[in-house]
Write a structure and sequence with these properties.
It is a single chain. The chain is mainly alpha-helical. Helix content is 42%, strand content 0%. It is elongated.
């Protein structure tokens, strides 16, 4: 019983240490963020790719 308790305590301490290191790294990260998606310019939009207007009504697609 004592061996299992020691294993569980060490597992808890190790997991708390790893979580603390990850959280600390997220809070203190000062590097450049990674850009995963490309930037679409407003002039590159075509009739099939219309932007969402401020009133929230989506552009209808032409039947083709």
């Amino acid at each position: 019983m004592k061996h299992e308790l020691l294993m569980l305590r060490s597992l808890l301490v190790a997991s708390l240490l790893v979580c603390g290191l990850i959280l600390g790294n997220m809070l203190t990260y000062t590097g450049e963020p990674i850009q995963l998606a490309g930037i679409v310019q407003a002039g590159n939009l075509t009739a099939t790719n219309c932007a969402l207007p401020p009133d929230g009504i989506v552009c209808p697609r032409s039947a083709s």
